[in-house]
Model the fold of this input.
Amino acid sequence: MSRHDHFSTRAIHIGSEPDPSTGAVVPSLSVATTYKQNGINKLLGGYDYSRSGNPTRTDLESLLTSLETCPSQTIANDARHDASGGESLVFASGSAATAAVAHWVTLSEKECGAGGRDGNGHGGHILAVNDVYGGTARYLARASRPTGLDVTFFNMEKAGEKGIREAIRPDTKLIWLELPTNPLLLVPPVRLISNIVHSLPSDTRPLILIDSTFLSPYYFTPLIPSNGDPPLADITMSSLSKYSSGHSDIILGSLTISPLTNKVRPNVLKGLRFLQNSMGASPSPRDCHLMIRSIKTLSVRMIRHGINALRLSHWLSTKTKLVERVRYPGLESDEAFGYVQDLISKNAKKELQFLGWKFPFAPKSYEGLEEDSLEYTRTLGIPFGGMITFAIKGATAEQAEKFCTELRIPILAESLGGVESLVEVPYGMTHAHLPQDTLKELNITPNLIRFSVGIEDYDDLVEDIEQALEVAVGKGKVNGNGHV
Ligand SMILES: *Cc1c(COP(=O)(O)O)cnc(C)c1O
Done:
């Protein structure tokens, strides 16, 4: 018996053991599409065809399982390997993972699906948060129609306990949550939802899935139980294309099933593996290999994303008059801040404590402290991801666009989570396909900016944002190009 290593150690070593035959410290990329058999169905290493399974993909899946489900420093049979009983499935994109789960809801119980409306497949219900990722909304509401899937997009924050209980129907198979939501960075009451769901019969209750793409397992591990409560979710879904990749150069997605759910409802994994193989959205082993390399630096990247985002959200809220509605859940003044201490992973807490953060967070004044100091930053809140949204005060769509194109460092582009800062205007880009009344209800206005804060030098970012705001909506300083 030994213990699981801490997150950063596992991020580097799990699935990356030196090759026993050559000693290579980085595992070889396994590109074969098919595998020699020693007799009919006598497989050498458990692999027969690469869509169904591939050693490089297996390495990535075991790495993800470890990061999503193994608490640091707990006793395990083998410290180097995942011994949690959880399991991960990697897909060609986050959206392919979403499609597999949606399909699973409508799949018959005989095929290890959730059974759909009556157990025989077709239909079934998903209760989803109302501002889900645009592609998720598109898949659930439109692409999956022929499967009979029924989806309710629901404002869980507003509904309260009674409203949530009433919204769960006898054929509700899954509750789809995102944390934080996109683009508004709302934090749904996951603890409350989990308590409600766990009060229902365990073999028929809906499963809870959390799309945790925006935080990555560095900041948020809802499959790991804390304080004796059941885990907050049964499944985490992640677009690995974002923070896990970190360099805007890989599209991949994953699902991870919690050890507890695997134990109590083993058919969930069977059904999802069946679909991973049958639906064909398998990842390329080359992408899996690059992803394993990317995840090795997840810790160092995420802490820097978080610190830059905390400082920047504070700057935007207090140092310029040109923006409003600044949202960053880690900022002490943010309406979601109350949830953050309950939700932040033990691992992130440990690393932040080393940097001097105290838990529970005790508000302190930053008056008199040097602004360019860690001491000052510690008074602002808690680093919790790298995503910020804000509105440019009174700006038209053209002015918002001007702001984005005037920026010298952050790039105007969709997506997020890369080391480079990216900006986008949800109203005209990622969320443009939403109906006008939904945009209005969610307050996604043409002047709303979503900012994926990169890990560039903080002072360079602030200086650049300040000048772009001035050019777009400020009093106007004449700059080198001569325009006002
Ligand atoms: C990007 C994203 C997805 C979809 O993932 P892809 O890898 O682009 O298919 C799902 N959810 C969230 C929150 C995302 O940001």
The domain at 298-473 is CATH 3.90.1150.10 (Aspartate Aminotransferase, domain 1).
